[in-house]
Amino acid sequence: MNKRTPEEWLEQIEMLPVDRRRATAKIIWWDFFGGRLNGKRWNHLDKYVQTPYEDIPDEIMLESLQMVGFTESQARQRIFPEERLTQQQPTTEI
Fold it and tell me: Is a pLDDT exceeding 80 seen at residue 6?
């Protein structure tokens, strides 16, 4: 997914139901484009990113991320970070 261009991400986002596009675009922007310097900034997702925050139910976001190309595991880790943290904890027996 890191090799997708902004245009490819935009195409995937625009195939989602309209009510899911903004929230999904914000996650994609943050995960793949947020770290770019201003001089290298891509504006392809601006029409979705520069909108007010909206609360989308976790299960719908999970489905939306999978629809644009996240695996189920990647989407779950993105939506439920606490699961990622508990999976990384080494188990020690006393």
Answer: yes
